[in-house]
Amino acid sequence: MFDVVTLGETMLRFTPPDFCRLGQTTSMEIHVGGSESNTAIGLSRLGRKVAWLSSLTNNPLGRHIDSQIRVHGVDTSHVYWTDKHRVGLYFLEPGSPPRNSQVIYDRAESAFSHYSTDMLPKDLFRPGAARWLHVSGISLGVSEVARQTVRHAVDLAKQAGWGLSFDVNYRSLLWSPEAARVELSELFRTADLLFTAARDLKTLWGLEVSEGETSSFERLVEAREGKPSVVTLGSFGAAACSSAGVVLQPIVPVAPIGRLGGGDAFSAGFLHSWLSSDDLGVALRWATTVARFKYSIPGDIPWIERSEIEKSLQTLEHTPDVVR
User: Fold this and answer.
1) Cβ neighbours of residue 15 closer than 8 Å, sequence gap 6 or more
2) Considering all CA atoms of the chain, what is the largest pairwise distance in Å, rounded to the nearest integer?
């Protein structure tokens, strides 16, 4: 039995070294990255049994992605392999103030954009085969085909009695706020567990939340009918809210070496704790601790060790989160 099954696209990332611009570099660092596989890897490295579903091109690039996910203990045996389409790529130009970092996608016609419902491993979606399905809004923005596949996977997971975890993960380079709101609102309302950034709440649904005014979370709790929601709040930290109330978890900011993948590490830490106990405060401490460790690691993948996370958490054991 899997603790969590994740579904989504993983790409190759090309990054110029030493903060060079894309137009000036003569070499590139190559990393593997995808929101759902990042979360799967984080969970696996914390000791959970995880499977990742996707479609990959049967060439050296696709096989490299597969091997880089499997090496962390994630089950990739249900990946759909194809000879027809390409591996998605993206390019990250790291910025330094006053120059912002920027991402350029090259993922059109990728294997995952053609990942149709008939490619899903239907036999996996049965009662007792897994406890949770984790998906993100990125997958619904890749293509109409992928969107229908994610929705079908969600339906199959619900029929099998699995829990559903949904990370909004709005990407403005994929679609407009208006289009995203139409397609994501159902999952936003119905997911058993929601992850989102405060900025995405405001952009997509006009919901503004603030750590300084916990009553601002009431509209989110109402919109989600009391189901738990987890919100990242930038440099402050994070919050979780449900019909039971609001929990705030401040963090000590760190200078990020590897910012990309931090949110995925956050969701991995939260889910790992949530699978053992539905304590929002404890899960938030796990989430923020795993995310802070990820910021110290280059690339997208959370190369964390459970022992170091647990050791760090011990120092927070007597530091209460703010409950209001």
Assistant:
1) 28, 29, 30, 31, 91, 92, 93, 94
2) 55
What does the alpha-carbon distance between residue 149 and residue 153 come to, in Å, rounded to a whole number? 6
Average pLDDT over residues 55-72: 98
Q: Where are the beta strands (DSSP E) in the chain?
A: 2-7, 11-15, 29-33, 50-53, 55-57, 80-82, 89-93, 102-106, 130-136, 163-167, 193-197, 229-232, 237-242, 245-250, 322-323
Tokens 């099998």 map to which residue?
Answer: 160
What amino acid occupies position 155?
D
Spatial distance between the Cα atoms of 274 and 224, rounded to a whole number of angstroms: 18
Tokens of 86: 């390409």
- Mind listing the pLDDT tens digit for each residue in 103-116? 999 999 999 999 99
pTM: 0.94
CATH-assigned architecture of domain 2-323: 3-Layer(aba) Sandwich (3.40)
CA angle 96, 265, 254 (to 5 degrees): 40
Among residues 264, 278, 279, 321, which one is catalytic?
264
Percentage of the chain beyond pLDDT 90 is: 90
In this structure, how many other beta carbons lie within 10 angstroms of the beta carbon of residue 256?
A: 14
Residue 264 annotated among the catalytic residues of the structure: yes
pLDDT class for 318, splitting at 50, 70, 90?
very low
For residues 72 and 158, give the distance between their C-alpha atoms in angstroms, rounded to a whole number: 28
202: its two tokens: 């405001």
What pLDDT shows up at residue 321?
Answer: 55
Chain centroid, CA 289 distance in Å: 16
pLDDT in tens, 82-103: 999 999 999 999 888 899 999 9
Q: What is the DSSP letter of 244?
A: T
Counting Cα atoms < 13 Å in the Cβ hemisphere of 236 gives 16
